[in-house]
Write a structure and sequence with these properties.
InterPro entries: AcTrfase_RimI/Ard1, Acyl_CoA_acyltransferase, Ard1-like, GNAT_dom. This is Ribosomal-protein-alanine acetyltransferase. This protein is 32% helix and 34% strand. The chain contains four helices and seven strands. Strands 1-2-3-4-5-7-6 form a seven-stranded mixed beta sheet, with helices on both faces. By secondary structure, the chain is of the alpha+beta class. It is globular. It has helices spanning 14-25, 30-40, 82-96, 111-119, and strands spanning 5-8, 43-49, 52-62, 65-73, 101-107, 123-128, 138-144. A hairpin with a 2-residue loop joins strand 2 and strand 3 (52-62). The termini are far apart. The chain has a single domain (5-144), classed as Aminopeptidase.
């Protein structure tokens, strides 16, 4: 069994996180995305296997709510529970900080991610038309943390 440690992001993780973001989302400028996550985000957690970063989650806190800005796992390490571990740690961190709700956006076609989020208690609360650059809509999903 693979031993995965979820820990706080540190500067030496930059290249690995950049590679994962680029592989998962093919953004025009992955370095800019990472800059936004680190500048405007409250936290970034990484999944570490023996010193190699294989996934990350970026959180932004606003008042009593938080938003998952991005979550991704390296393709070679998907379907191993790593995304779930990252999500669990993000939820735990939000609860510890007294957040009442956690949001995220997900492509309407990304059934695998939606299944994971629903398994963790997220519900679809809205749809944003033409959210992505290619015109695809996004579901807004929310997890109520109060009382959990």
């Amino acid at each position: 069994m693979i031993s995965v440690v979820v820990r706080e992001y540190c500067a030496s993780d930059y290249t690995d996180v950049l590679e994962i973001d680029n592989e998962a989302f093919s953004p025009k400028n992955p370095a800019y995305d990472l800059y936004i996550y680190l500048t405007y985000g409250s936290d970034m957690l990484v999944a570490d296997i023996g010193g190699k970063i294989v996934g990350y989650v970026a959180l932004m806190e606003v008042g009593l709510e938080a938003k998952i800005m991005s979550i991704a796992v390296k393709k070679a390490f998907r379907n191993m529970g790593i995304g779930g571990k990252l999500l669990d740690e993000a939820i735990k961190k939000c609860k510890e900080r007294g957040k009442i709700r956690l949001f995220l956006e997900v492509r309407v076609s990304n059934y695998v991610a939606q299944h994971l989020y629903k398994k963790k208690g997220f519900e679809i609360v809205d749809i944003i038309p033409n959210y992505y650059n290619d015109g695809e809509d996004a579901y807004v999903m929310a997890l109520n943390l109060a009382g959990q």
